[in-house]
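Hi L., both proteins are below.
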Amino acid sequence: MSTTRIVLKRDVSRDQVGYVAYDKKWRIQSVTRESESPQRQVWATRDGGTVITFLEDPYLELRYVVVQGAQVAEVAQIIRSSLACWTIEEALEFLRQSHTSDEKIHAVYLTAASAPVDEDPQVVAALQDIARDQDAEVRQALLVGMGYLAGWPIVRSIAHSLKENDPNDDVRRSAEYLLEGLDRPNVT
């Protein structure tokens, strides 16, 4: 089954995603209560062959849509043409332009969540660069963000290097946790 993730820009609300779903006559499958976190809403295309899941991650401060099924390319194009979405090029540029720790951390999350399913050389170079950042919190964010890229071979390599060589105990421990998570079944 084909899958893609589309990161929404900050000004795009769950309601706006719902308006697109309503306009396209996608059927609502489930929704979380307002008090639940993270926020999640699921639709299916009229034929039921494609599932569209809106997720709001309060920890990473990201909102994104995961599209899975037979019509991924078509549905993803509808979302991208209807809503303000991050491209991987924009995320990488934001990462390059980031100077403060907070900017870098947010840019790492954006880049990881916006990255394609298959390993991308530009993203790999950016991840390797961030792994050498002076700030331990930025390197921690890298390990969290790489969870979105669990199927990429470079993730294991970077995590292993941080586990063995990082000067910060917390970063080394987080790298070990990521490696343990990658070894669990059903992680792709």
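That was the first. Here is the second:
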Amino acid sequence: MSQAEQNVGPRGAGHEPSNDPWKGFRGVCSGTLVLEAIVVLLVLTVVARVDGGAHMSWWKAVYIVAISLAMILACGVQKKPWAIPVDLGLAALVAIGFFVHPSMSIVGVIFLAVWLYLLYLRGQLRSRIRGGYLGSQHD
């Protein structure tokens, strides 16, 4: 049996899925971006309140709000082929936000792990479509 035949589901390769499985994945990515934007905006309150606001400055607030706004705007371009690299880049900008406050880096590392898991899920979805494992490929 060839490698291509081993990766085919028990019902065969099937046809193109009747409903778009990538639409659901794009929705998960958009939802993750919205959640990440909200959490990053909450970092603004942490920076403003910890140590009586000693860590707060105007450029830190601009950095936090700009990243959050970019995340909200990125929700609308999840259909583009460059959307995932943009999402990972935004998560990386949050993860390197230690210069703003350590809590921002903690949030960034958590969401970077979420994005890496979403990359894994994207690969799984791609292989399942290729192998014909989706139910909508056999209706």
